[in-house]
Amino acid sequence: MRCMRMTKPLAAVITAFAAAGLAACAAIPPEPQATATPPDGDGPMVAFYGDSYTLGTGATGADARWSTIISADRGWREVNPSVNGLGFINNRSVFGDGDLPSIIIDAAPDVVIVTMGLNDNFAYERRPDERDRIREQIGIDLNRLRDGLPDARIVVVEPFWYTDARPDSVQIIIDWVREGAEAIGADYIAGASRYIEGRPELMAADGLHPNDDGYAVIAERLDVEFAALGL
C-alpha cells in the first residue's frame, strides 16, 4: 500500500527535516580511519563504494545488509568501507589519498560496485553555488577507479532514495551518475532509487534507512540485475 500523497509544501518540509536527519546520522568521522582488509577465500573480491544504504545502517547486523547478503550467496569476498552520510562531496573532507576510492584501489578488487549519490542531494540543496562540483567529482571519482583498477569490472548503481517525495535534484544527480558511468565504460543499473518507494514497512524506526526487510528487497532486486550482467 502506497503512502498517502502529500501536498508539495508538506512534502518539502518533510524532505527538509529528513535531509537534516540523514546528515546528522553522519556524526562519526565521514572518512574511514583504517584501510579495508580483504577477507580470505578463493572467490572474487568485490568492493563497495557507498554510503549508509550500503554500510547497512538500520539493519540489525552487517549480515542483514544487502551487500553482505549478495556476497554470501555468490561467494564474493566483500570489501565494504562505506560511510554514513557520505556523498561525492557531501560530508567529505578527503579527496585523494586516504578517501574511499583510494582505499578501494589499494584493496585491488576484481569488481567495484558504486552506490553513491543519495547524500549529495542535501549538498545540492544547501550549497547551490557548488552544484557543478558534484557533477565534476562524480567524474573524478569514477575515473580514478577506472585508472587505478584497469582490469576490474566496475558497476555503477543508480543512487538510492528514501521518500516518495523526490526533489528535482534526485533525477539530476541520477543523470550525472549515469553520465559518469558511461564515460568510463562501466556497467550501469537503473531504477534503484525506487526499490523501496511507497513501502513504509521496509523502513527502520529512524524513518531514513531500510530495515532488514528493506535490505532484503534491495538484495533481491540487485541480485537479478547482477545476474543479468553475468556477475
From TrEMBL:
<feature type="domain" description="SGNH hydrolase-type esterase">
    <location>
        <begin position="48"/>
        <end position="217"/>
    </location>
</feature>
<dbReference type="InterPro" id="IPR051532">
    <property type="entry name" value="Ester_Hydrolysis_Enzymes"/>
</dbReference>
<feature type="signal peptide">
    <location>
        <begin position="1"/>
        <end position="26"/>
    </location>
</feature>
<dbReference type="InterPro" id="IPR036514">
    <property type="entry name" value="SGNH_hydro_sf"/>
</dbReference>
<dbReference type="Pfam" id="PF13472">
    <property type="entry name" value="Lipase_GDSL_2"/>
</dbReference>
<keyword id="KW-0732">Signal</keyword>
<protein>
    <submittedName>
        <fullName>Lysophospholipase L1-like esterase</fullName>
    </submittedName>
</protein>
<dbReference type="InterPro" id="IPR013830">
    <property type="entry name" value="SGNH_hydro"/>
</dbReference>
